[in-house]
């Protein structure tokens, strides 16, 4: 796990040293264990890397890494979980590896398979690989987009990095805010890929590779999420159990201790149960405590940790702690978001305890139907469809609701005024500001108007459940949860691993029919991991969340006091206030 940066182009040469050094400084927090730079003999590529040492802790694991006398070079961020299988494959072919790193495994995979090396990698990754003989650079990103990879194309060059601020720090990319991206941010609380709030910076799409050669940059998809229901229903539980256990085993590939984020819920408890079954006893489990609040899960988590023999550590947070966390969160944000503080808090705590690799239950809700959206979105779409059958009623209801004082009512009015379908219903369900409000906010903060929402619309799947699943995984999970988890954990020098989003897990579970895969209460996950204790399995779903709303009305009042005064639309709810506040803080530092 690292921070990567680089500049590619015919006229890079010695002049890349200063921009590359600035990029390395901007990404240094992601890799506190070492820094390195590399310049190609041709003068056409310069790479940098800030290292978080997890595998092969010796100097042999330093990056950027080269093989064959510099013919191939790489800067890599992530973790390849099938590195041992790949090593055996290469050694059987007579290839001698000189390190115990997954970084060298990628280089050897490219040596054997070329760009198709990504098809053989099981893990989370973002890397740039320079092929001196072909005078070309390959960029690659993992299938789900767990690891980020941003790039810009100033004249004659490719500039890339692990964060948008890394690319901007080069000084080679023109400044300027993307108004369309900002509009999307106000609609959803996160910036939707491939855009960023920097007009000149884009994100390489998940499951894609990009190639720079002869001054041209092209991209290609190598993997796509799909639901094809190939697994028989009677095999679903056993198949899911087997692939989850296999994924957890692979996620313990590390030369440093691995811990787990443990809440009081099913997802993290299932990981602990699977880890125990895989033979990893005595794990260190970390829990956030919220003393005196209804959301405090530390007691339940402690009982679970004792049950599995884990070493449990609780970090209690109150409103005053939260104030400092708020400041730290805003400093760590690469792009504004209404989420991320919980990951930062637990990652800070884990790192202070000396642990820098952590397992997270992220992704289970999206795979196994854990959100209310699977019921709420189809109901909204059906309600809109019924009213559409009576156009005068729909139009009148849209006008009335659009002027309502309630935030929820105004969003419903927005849906009636907009197009039909599950995608539009999902946008209403997950929405923050209405379309009109987002336009006004964008004009206010970006100083320019936008033409409309240019987001790509996914086609409906064979079932409403699969459509919602795709939307949750390609929007909420990708644009908010994964991005925030990466940025906030790496701000603390912690590698966050997400076994539920393992390549094999997603490919296997996505082939289970929606009625089984998305059965109420994540029934498939419960059945697949029978070791989940009853006191966890039988409780109502509740996600961990800081009591931000009460803090905003109390200890945090000062930090947010001026938001309503500056905002051109009413904020009303805590998440709308946070959305505006985070954007203002981001613009102060990066805009």
Strand order of the largest sheet: 2-3-1-9-8-10
Number of strands: 17
Q: Specify the helix fraction band.
A: 40-55%
Give the CA-based shape.
globular
Portion in strands: 15-25%
Tell me the number of helical segments per DSSP (H or I, 4 or more residues long): 25
Average pLDDT figure = 92
Radius of gyration: 24 Å
Main beta sheet: 6 strands, antiparallel
Low-confidence stretches: none
Distance between the termini: 28 Å
| Structural class based on helices, strands and sheet pairing | alpha+beta
Q: What is this structure, in a nutshell?
A:
With 591 residues, the protein is of the alpha+beta class. Helices cover 43% and strands 15% of the residues. Strands 2-3-1-9-8-10 form a six-stranded antiparallel sheet. A six-stranded antiparallel sheet has the order 4-5-6-7-11-12, covered by helices on one side. It has a five-stranded parallel sheet with strand order 15-14-13-16-17, with helices on both faces.
Description:
The chain starts with a strand and ends with a helix. The protein is 43% helix and 15% strand. It is globular. It has a 6-stranded antiparallel beta sheet. It is of the alpha+beta class and 591 residues long.
Topology (elements, then pairings):
Layout lengths: L1 E8 L7 H11 L7 E5 L5 E7 L13 E3 L4 E9 L2 H10 L9 H12 L9 E9 L4 E6 L8 E3 L4 E5 L2 H6 L9 H10 L13 E2 L4 E6 L2 E6 L14 H15 L7 E4 L4 H12 L6 E6 L8 H11 L2 E6 L2 H14 L8 H12 L4 E3 L4 H5 L4 H16 L2 H12 L4 H11 L4 H8 L5 H12 L17 H27 L4 E3 L5 H7 L4 H4 L5 H6 L5 H4 L10 H6 L3 H4 L2 H4 L7 H16 L2
Parallel strand pairs: 13-14, 13-16, 14-15, 16-17
Antiparallel strand pairs: 1-3, 1-9, 2-3, 4-5, 5-6, 6-7, 7-11, 8-9, 8-10, 11-12
Helix pairs in contact: 2-3, 5-16, 6-7, 6-18, 7-8, 10-17, 12-15, 12-17, 13-14, 14-15
């Amino acid at each position: 796990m690292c921070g990567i940066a680089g500049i590619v182009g015919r006229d890079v040469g010695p002049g890349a040293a200063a921009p590359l050094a600035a990029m390395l400084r901007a990404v240094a927090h992601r890799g506190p264990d070492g820094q390195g730079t590399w310049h190609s003999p041709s003068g056409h590529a310069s790479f940098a890397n800030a290292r978080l040492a997890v595998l092969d802790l010796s100097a042999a694991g330093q990056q950027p890494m080269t093989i064959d006398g510099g013919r191939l070079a790489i800067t890599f961020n992530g973790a390849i979980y099938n590195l041992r299988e790949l090593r055996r494959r290469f050694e059987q072919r007579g290839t001698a590896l000189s390190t115990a790193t997954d970084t060298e495994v990628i280089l050897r995979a490219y040596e054997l398979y070329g760009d198709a090396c990504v098809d053989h990698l099981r893990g989370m990754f973002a890397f740039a690989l320079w092929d001196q003989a072909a005078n070309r650079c390959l960029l690659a990103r993992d299938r789900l987009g767990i690891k980020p990879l941003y790039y810009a194309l100033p004249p004659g060059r490719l500039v890339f990095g692990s964060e948008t601020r890394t690319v901007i720090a080069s000084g080679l990319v023109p400044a300027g805010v993307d108004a369309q991206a900002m509009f999307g941010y106000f609609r959803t609380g996160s910036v939707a890929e491939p855009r960023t709030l920097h007009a000149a910076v884009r994100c390489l799409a998940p499951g894609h590779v990009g190639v720079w050669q002869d001054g041209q940059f092209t991209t290609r998809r190598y993997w796509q999420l799909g639901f094809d229901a190939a697994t028989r229903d009677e095999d679903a539980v056993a198949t899911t159990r087997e692939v989850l256990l296999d994924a957890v085993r692979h996620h313990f590939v590390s030369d440093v201790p691995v811990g787990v984020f443990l809440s009081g819920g099913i997802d993290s408890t299932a990981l602990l149960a699977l880890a125990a079954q895989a033979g990893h006893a005595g794990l260190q489990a970390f829990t956030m405590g919220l003393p005196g609040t209804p959301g405090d899960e530390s007691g339940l988590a402690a009982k679970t940790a004792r049950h599995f023999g884990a070493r449990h550590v609780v970090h209690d947070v109150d409103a005053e702690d939260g104030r400092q966390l708020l400041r730290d969160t805003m400093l760590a944000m690469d792009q504004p978001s209404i989420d991320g503080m919980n990951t930062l808090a637990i990652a800070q705590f884990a790192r202070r305890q000396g642990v820098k690799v952590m397992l997270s239950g992220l992704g289970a809700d999206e795979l196994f139907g854990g959100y209310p959206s699977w019921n709420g979105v189809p109901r909204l779409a059906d309600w809109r469809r019924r009213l559409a059958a009576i156009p005068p009623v729909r139009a009148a209801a849209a006008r009335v609701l659009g002027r309502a004082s309630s935030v929820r009512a105004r969003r419903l009015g927005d849906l009636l005024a907009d197009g039909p379908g599950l995608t539009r219903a999902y946008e209403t369900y997950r929405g923050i500001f209405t379309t009109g409000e987002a336009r006004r906010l964008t004009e206010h903060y970006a100083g320019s108007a936008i033409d409309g929402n240019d987001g790509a619309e996914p086609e409906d799947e064979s079932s409403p459940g699969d459509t919602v699943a795709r939307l949750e995984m390609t929007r909420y999970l990708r644009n908010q949860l994964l991005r925030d988890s990466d940025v906030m954990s790496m701000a603390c020098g912690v590698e966050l691993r997400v076994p539920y989003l393992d390549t094999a897990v997603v490919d296997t579970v996505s082939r289970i029919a929606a009625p089984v895969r998305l059965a109420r209460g994540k029934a498939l996950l419960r059945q697949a991991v029978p070791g989940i204790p009853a006191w966890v399995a039988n409780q109502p779903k509740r996600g961990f969340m800081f009591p931000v709303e009460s803090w905003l009305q109390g200890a945090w009042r000062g930090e947010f006091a001026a938001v309503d005064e500056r905002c051109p639309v009413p904020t009303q709810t805590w998440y709308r206030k946070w959305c505006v506040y985070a954007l203002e803080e981001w613009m102060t530092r990066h805009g």
